[in-house]
Amino acid sequence: MLDIGCGPGFFTIDMAQMVGKSGRVIASDVQEGMLEKLKHKIEGTELADRIQLHKSEKTRIRLSEPVDFVLAFYVVHEIPNKLDFFSELASIMQPGGQILFVEPPFHVSKSAFAETVRTAQEAGFQSEKGPKVLFSKAVILKK
Question: Who's near 68: CB < 8 A, 6+ residues apart?
Answer without folding.
Answer: 1, 93, 94, 96, 97, 98
